[in-house]
Amino acid sequence: MINKKQGKLICVGTGMRMAGQLTPIAQSYIETSDVVIAAVPNIFARKWLQGIAKEYICLLGYYSDCDVEGKSRRDTYRRMVDTILAQVRAGKTVCAAFYGHPGVFACVGHMAILEARAEGYSAQMEPGISAEDCLVADLGIDPAQFGAQSMETTQFMIYQRKIDPTALLILWQPGLAGELSLKRFDTNPARLQILVNKLARDYPLDHPVILYEAATHPLEQTRMDTILLKDLPAASLQQITTLVIPPARAMQPDQDIVDQLNAIAATPVRLEQAA
Ligand SMILES: C[S@@+](CC[C@H](N)C(=O)[O-])C[C@H]1O[C@@H](n2cnc3c(N)ncnc32)[C@H](O)[C@@H]1O
To answer: 46, 246 in Cβ contact below 8 A?
Structure first.
């Protein structure tokens, strides 16, 4: 049996929506850990966490590192991880809380868990409700219907990616599209035009796309604006916007594979009878 050191790390998510999207196990870790370290932007969620945590350390101020010459979001994330690890090394049970799912398009929890485990501490992540989970519910999209691709917008822009326009495409952080300095939290029409140009390799310019923003508290409206792809540069995009691009073409049968499967099947089937 491996002896773990005394400190312990549990990363939890608070869900997207204040009230109701926190899992019971996440709430239990928030209430019982020695310290809660959190980067939760919603003020009501933050106040609530502060109210139930034994001790609370807020990481949000670390984003101002990006205003310092020569520093970027990487330095912010490094300092967040260091703050979490310092409390674990002090022998505390640490609950690191992030909005949504703590490990979905959120690197700090993953980094902290890897480093804590490498140093011999117990570290785990509990799943939470992510923006993508809300999107499936709000937009009534089942990723199983056509398959789904999900990636960060700037990563999609600056790397050579093979997009399948017969499947759903979810682009995260379009509000930061093409922001290469890793210092700012916005985009502009020129960068969005470059995004549109790249998407136009696979989608018609008049293809409908959805700007999705899940409501973060019960009094807020969920944004589900359908616009044409070509109008994206003029659209208003926030840090919380997710860009949802429905399939533009029908899936084409791979008859060769269907024939191979039928050749070994007891009862051959036609494609429309299968998945
Ligand atoms: C750093 S990621 C955090 C994702 C979060 N960990 C989750 O589980 O959804 C930020 C991106 O998540 C998406 N996002 C965050 N809040 C959202 C919201 N209220 N509605 C829709 N998408 C959101 C946007 O694509 C945003 O740019």
So the answer is: no
